[in-house]
């Protein structure tokens, strides 16, 4: 089954289909249909309507609903050195060695390939990472896990494989092959860090909201259109991430370290 899935996903015109999906989900919905449609979507994918600001009829399209913000009280930012940058589920997390990040058990990929820069990868050597999968029902905005500075954001071209667990298990080097935005950061104590927003099949575009400048812990830095993956990479010397297991839920703003 994994071989068939790999062959099928490789053959699909993923970028074209994703662009068409983005256009379709951006089409305005009739105002009378919005509440019922978004309520169905929330039930189907497990989105929490209690956290949605305003009225459902205010969201003109499914894309607008995907990119929704949160009510002010929904995500208090923890008083810890690090917080989780997004809602989602852990794919892998922990220390990495030899410049390689585990994609799944027994399958890893090059950090330099993910970042598109061998020198930046060397700066992060001996560090730790957390890979977080955002499902369609999750809150789709990405925030900084730390206080510091965004030095630059680099858009790296690539394909758009799905990033759901079955695809991650069967597509080698998936996160380094998909299109992505790499935030090159410096934490407030000088430790290098990266926030990588990995595009995915049917994601209706990635929006960068902080291309450079100082950032507060918990501040929004970007948005996804449907669901995707965030790879948080911290250089040696950063606070230790809390131990987490694959499939463990994360919520933006909750403590990721002591």
Describe the structure.
This protein is α+β, with helices and mostly antiparallel strands and 258 residues long. Helix content is 24%, strand content 26%. The mean pLDDT is 91.
Query: Main sheet?
Result: 8 strands, antiparallel
Strand content: 25-35%
Mean pLDDT: 91
Number of domains as seen in the coordinates = 2
**Inertia-based shape:** globular
Number of helices: 8
- Count the beta strands: 13
CATH architectural type of the largest domain: Distorted Sandwich
Q: Indicate the low-confidence ranges by residue numbers.
A: none
* Share of helical residues: 10-25%
Order of helices and strands: HHHHEEEHHEEEHHEEEEEEE
- CATH hierarchy class name of the largest domain: Mainly Beta
Coarse structural class: alpha+beta
**Distance between the amino and carboxyl termini:** 42 Å
Task: Put the structure in a nutshell.
The chain is α+β, with helices and mostly antiparallel strands. The chain has eight helices and 13 strands.
